[in-house]
Amino acid sequence: MQYFSTKKLILPEGYFISSSQFPIAKDVNRLLVNCGCDSFPIQKLSLAIKNSNFFFSIQSEFKNKLCGFVRVTSDRGLNANLWNLSAEPGKNQNVFYSVLLQSTLEKINREMPGCSISVQAPVSSFKSLEERGFILDPNGIRVMGYKL
User: Fold this and answer.
1) How far apart are CA 136 and CA 134, in angstroms?
2) Which of 17, 35, 69, 130 is positioned for an S-S bond with 122, CB 3.0–4.6 A?
3) Confidence band for 135, pLDDT divided at 50, 70 and 90
4) DSSP-based helix, strand, coil % in the chain, nearest 5
5) CA atoms within 13 A on the CB side of 36
6) Strand-strand pairing, 54-60 and 15-18
């Protein structure tokens, strides 16, 4: 199923999305822990980010702080996997998740059409995932993991 967004989501003032500035692995780990996820060894996480097909991060312009992140790996034929989806807890968390997901799905649709998409994500992202058309927990499947 191809993804076509119904409306363009806008980040709150003072935030921007980037796919060119590599985030610092320590900052990604901080986000993951704040979302209730496990952290990863810094070197392995840095390597995983660099070896991903692409990533998106949300930054605060004023605080120079990482507020959202997702990275994508793919065989560019059948599968695309979203990893380390995370967003700073607080009033903008759902907006951050939604913008990350919309940007990611649009890029997958353009560059990797026909790929099935799987997501490794924290519970805090479930509402945004459902709003983007993801079916949570199909047929009782609960976990897909990959050790970095």
Assistant:
1) 6
2) 35
3) confident
4) 35, 25, 45
5) 7
6) antiparallel
- Residue 145 to residue 148: CA distance in whole angstroms: 10
What residues make up the domain containing 77? 15-132
Phi-psi region of 142 (alpha: psi -120 to 50; beta: other; left: phi over 0): alpha
Backbone phi and psi for residue 40, each to the nearest 5 degrees, phi listed first: -130, 155
1, part of any domain: no
Q: Does any domain span residue 5?
A: no
pLDDT, tens digit (0-9, with 9 covering 90-100), for 30-79? 999 999 999 999 999 999 999 999 999 999 998 889 999 999 999 988 89
Dist CA 94 CA 136 (whole Å): 17
Please name the residues in contact with 111: beta carbons below 8 A apart, sequence gap of 6 or more.
76
Joined tokens for residue 41 = 């060894």
